[in-house]
């Protein structure tokens, strides 16, 4: 993915540089100092991408098959899976081309690789942006379903959900194209970092508010059964753990990549920042891992979806 001019992965493959093996070690940066680097091989990236690709394709196929899942909530979940599928698919395509180039099985001119790299970068960037947007959309949908339960079906209608989905996809493609075209401008990188922080704050505020409301509801039920303290504390602890896992995974998987972008703005020439830049493939692998985890959090908890998934796996169309 194009984050710096020197990180054009496809064009870099023309130099036939050896692929790094998965290891944790010390590497020398441009100043000669030694720094910690986690090397991720292209084979590992390819494997992660394929797992995510298959998993998210199953989610999309499952939701498409069952008309009972054609609701606004599952529309957002399906689009999240589609976004993650595109992230993984673009990574698989790019990594496969790199491996073929390094093996000498594929010969292409630099201009062709440049165009292919640009296309892959736009797909990757737009799918990353849309993935973040749909995570936020799912949080908003759940918030409305809890705080405006009686009016939920009149507020969140399928036509409105479809318009929101269309707007997210169009905005993601437009902004990702601008990002790839002007990736060396500080303002573009800052916009991406601010966007990530905004999504993080939005999700944290909404889910914390939902947890507080759920705890109040549990406390009210406990009072009716005269078991206020044990039930309330147990529910609150379980909810806090769930919330911590949800936001923790989001921050752990996406945070390093946006830290990478932030450091490009703040200290592009500093030796310490140079050490972090060397771990770009690790940050990309974490995003792909998030694409693997998303279906487990947002999709496979549904009994209806799991039942339909079994039918898809057994080809019961």
UniProtKB/TrEMBL annotation:
Transmembrane intervals: 161-181, 187-214, 235-259, 279-300
Domain of life the protein comes from: Eukaryota
GO molecular function terms attached to this record: melanocyte-stimulating hormone receptor activity
Stored InterPro entries: GPCR_Rhodpsn (IPR000276), GPCR_Rhodpsn_7TM (IPR017452), Melcrt_ACTH_rcpt (IPR001671), MSH_rcpt (IPR000761)
Domain G-protein coupled receptors family 1 profile positions: 55-298
Keyword terms of this UniProt record: Cell membrane, G-protein coupled receptor, Glycoprotein, Lipoprotein, Membrane, Palmitate, Receptor, Transducer, Transmembrane, Transmembrane helix
Cellular compartments annotated: Cell membrane
Membrane topology according to the record: Multi-pass membrane protein
GO biological process entries: adenylate cyclase-activating G protein-coupled receptor signaling pathway; regulation of gene expression
GO cellular component: plasma membrane
Family membership: Belongs to the G-protein coupled receptor 1 family.
Subunit text: Interacts with MGRN1, but does not undergo MGRN1-mediated ubiquitination; this interaction competes with GNAS-binding and thus inhibits agonist-induced cAMP production. Interacts with OPN3; the interaction results in a decrease in MC1R-mediated cAMP signaling and ultimately a decrease in melanin production in melanocytes.
Role noted for this protein: Receptor for MSH (alpha, beta and gamma) and ACTH. The activity of this receptor is mediated by G proteins which activate adenylate cyclase. Mediates melanogenesis, the production of eumelanin (black/brown) and phaeomelanin (red/yellow), via regulation of cAMP signaling in melanocytes.
UniProt protein name: Melanocyte-stimulating hormone receptor
Species: Homo sapiens
Lineage: Eukaryota, Metazoa, Chordata, Craniata, Vertebrata
Gene: MC1R
């Amino acid at each position: 993915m194009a984050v710096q001019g020197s990180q054009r992965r496809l064009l870099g493959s023309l130099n036939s540089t050896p692929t790094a093996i998965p290891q944790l070690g010390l590497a020398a940066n441009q100043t000669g100092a030694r720094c910690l680097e986690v090397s991720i091989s292209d084979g590992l990236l390819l494997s992660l991408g394929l797992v995510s690709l298959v998993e998210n394709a199953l989610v999309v196929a499952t939701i498409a098959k069952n008309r009972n899942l054609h609701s606004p909530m599952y529309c957002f979940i399906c689009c999240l899976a589609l976004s993650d599928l595109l992230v993984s698919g673009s990574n698989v395509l790019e990594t496969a081309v790199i491996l073929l180039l390094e093996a000498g099985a594929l010969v292409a001119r630099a201009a062709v690789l440049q165009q292919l790299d640009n296309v892959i970068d736009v797909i990757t960037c737009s799918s990353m942006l849309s993935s973040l947007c749909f995570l936020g959309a799912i949080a908003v949908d759940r918030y409305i379903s809890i705080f405006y339960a009686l009016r939920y079906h009149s507020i969140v209608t399928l036509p409105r959900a479809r318009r929101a989905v269309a707007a997210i996809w169009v905005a993601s493609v437009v902004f990702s194209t601008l990002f790839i075209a002007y990736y060396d401008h500080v303002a573009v990188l800052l916009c991406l970092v601010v966007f990530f922080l905004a999504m993080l704050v939005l999700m944290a505020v909404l889910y914390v508010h939902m947890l507080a409301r759920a705890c109040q509801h549990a406390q009210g039920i406990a009072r009716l059964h005269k078991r206020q303290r044990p039930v309330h504390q147990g529910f609150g602890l379980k909810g806090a753990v769930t919330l911590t896992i949800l936001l923790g995974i989001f921050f752990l998987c996406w945070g390093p990549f946006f830290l990478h972008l932030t450091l490009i703005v703040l200290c592009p020439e500093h030796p310490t920042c140079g050490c972090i830049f060397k771990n770009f493939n690790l940050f990309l692998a974490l995003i792909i891992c998030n694409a693997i985890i998303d279906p487990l959090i947002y999709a496979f908890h549904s009994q209806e979806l799991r039942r339909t998934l079994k039918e898809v796996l057994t080809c019961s169309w």
